[in-house]
Amino acid sequence: MTKVPSMNLPGISADDSLMLLRAATLSIGVTESRNEDTPTSILDRVDQLLYDSKRGGKNRVTSG
User: Fold this and answer.
1) pTM, full prediction
2) Distance CA 58, CA 42 (A)
3) Is the confidence at residue 58, as pLDDT, over 70?
4) Least CB-packed of 21, 37, 38, 49 within 10 Å?
5) For the chain, percent helix, then strand, then coil, each to nearest 5?
């Protein structure tokens, strides 16, 4: 049996909480820093990778 984390949200029952967990998806962009990187270039690259994941479908990790 899967345990559902406790959620104390006003007006939301345990059944509603379970439905919220099932509806959640996750898209991630992942990168490594390079010698020539600046903080801004890293954030720009990982942001682009995140949106590539979102365009590719639900529950994806894109690296680059």
Assistant:
1) 0.62
2) 23
3) yes
4) 38
5) 45, 10, 45
